[in-house]
Amino acid sequence: MTDNFNKQASLFWALLVALTVTRLGLAACLPLTPDEAYYWVWSRHLQGGYFDHPFMVALWIRIGTWLAGDTSLGVRLLGPLSVLPGSWALYHAARLLLPSRPWPVSGFQAVLLLNATLMLGLGSATMTPDTPLVFFVSVSLFALGKAVSSSGGRTTGWWLLTGVLLGLAFDSKYTAVLIGLALGGAVLTTPRLRKQAGPWLAMPLLIITTTPVLLWNASHHWVSLLKQGGRAGDWHLARASQFLLELLGGQIGLATPLIFGLFALGGWACIKRNRLLAWLSLLPLAVFVTHALGDRVQANWPAVVYPVLALAAIEAGRSVRWPVISGIALTVLVYGQAVFSPLPFPAAKDPIQRQTAGWPDFSQKLVARAQETGASAFIAEEYGLASQLALTQNSLPVLGSDPRWSLFSFPPAEVPLGLKIEELHRIPAALDQDTLCRQSHGHNVRCYRVDVVKMPSGVQLPGRA
């Protein structure tokens, strides 16, 4: 039996290593998206927070580019690498948080389910705030499992570590607060946990860990927290059915259909026999469903609860074989389309090409146009466009005119002549001399209006060193 277990464990970890190598290859091959370029600009100027998110994604990119340079792989390096320790933590969390399920099988199943989702399969090969978020949530589940299953003085230490890890998850993305609130609900409704000192001592450590984000927000009029927390301020209840269907469809797509079904069965099973996982999975989901009654929930927002759902799914007691196989197969198909584009989507309608194709060549076209017109800087309002220009060329500075750039500690900059670039909503039938396009395999993907502007103002974006 020991030999059989060792063989299964070896195959399991070999699969995870193979997935990691594949994700590293994908991370190196795919050009960066505008959002990733945006986070790369953040990494050139580290601070406690930014207009959209906390600082962790910028810190991870800074470390990755220090190791592998300002390349696609450098920007994304820590994403694929973080999956291995995150999977190890989830594997052991299954033993601690699923006492009714046989381990190590439960650990194998939970890790395979999470890795087979498109959310992790594609998300770990890119770099967004969800990447460190999922890692820290996964590791916090291991620490939490230790906290609730240990005895004596060790319990308090594991609670303190749980608080630190949840704080780091909050430093990655604000949605981590939902896991913290859910854990608080579980503690308050469980007498055994409520009477322990550990959960209460962990709260100050959690707050201390989030101090850089809170201090930055306090010194910038709480702009980031208000932006994210104020999303529910403009509700459209008449569109509730549309938003709910979008939320449902997004999760079926990101989890992949069969794994989504297991997630749903697992949540129901946890209501009946695992109070802790029921709190951790259902309270965040209830918040997202409530939000969808009046406003759109982006498909990636529930990523914070995916590690919990991977554990919860095991409580359903169903086979994970076909959900895992189908999830990995769908992920491989997406990988293939991203790298080789075998399906003949029009370039302008391919969601991957639309974001990633043609940026370096487009930047060089703009450099040539600037030389022709005597412009000494680029100016762009849209943050993704401005960030891509800062990333893909180092010939001219880029002035960002969006107010978000004023949250950096860079003074406004002015130049005699600037080249202003604005994206057009559609590709024109005929191009004039003031229109330049990004291209993929000779086809226009996106087109931009280019104008010379006298004395443009804006904030100079951090670019390549």
TrEMBL record:
Positions of the Glycosyltransferase RgtA/B/C/D-like domain: 52-216
Highest taxon above the source species: Bacteria
Topology with respect to the bilayer: Multi-pass membrane protein
Compartments, as annotated in UniProt: Cell membrane
Keywords from the named record: Cell membrane, Glycosyltransferase, Membrane, Transferase, Transmembrane, Transmembrane helix
Residues annotated as transmembrane: 51-68, 75-94, 106-126, 133-152, 158-188, 200-223, 243-264, 276-293, 299-317, 324-345
Gene Ontology CC terms, in alphabetical order: plasma membrane
GO biological process: lipopolysaccharide biosynthetic process
Keyword Nucleotidyltransferase carried by entry: no
MF annotations from Gene Ontology: pentosyltransferase activity
Keyword Lipid biosynthesis included in the entry's annotation: no
Protein name (record): Glycosyl transferase
Native species: Gluconobacter cerinus
